[in-house]
Specification:
Elements (H helix, E strand, L loop, with lengths): L1 H68 L1
């Protein structure tokens, strides 16, 4: 009787440990994905800032030329 119960509890414990390991692995992948998303968004923001700076310089330069001509 106790042997059967011990075996069932042992199997249940092994299953729970396996599930926990799977959840822990999935959580690790989730954190890694989040970090990669943040890294990509930072790079995209830098690219947009560079483009905005270039556009601002182009418009600013044209205004100064137009003022000198006018």
């Amino acid at each position: 009787m106790f042997k059967e119960r011990t075996d069932r509890l042992t199997k249940r414990l092994a299953l729970m440990n396996q599930r926990y390991a799977g959840l822990d692995k999935r959580r690790g992948f989730e954190v890694e994905g989040f970090k990669n998303d943040v890294k990509l968004l930072k790079q995209q923001l830098k690219d947009v800032e560079k483009q905005l700076y270039k556009v601002t310089l182009n418009f600013g330069g044209n205004d100064e030329v137009n003022i000198l001509r006018g």
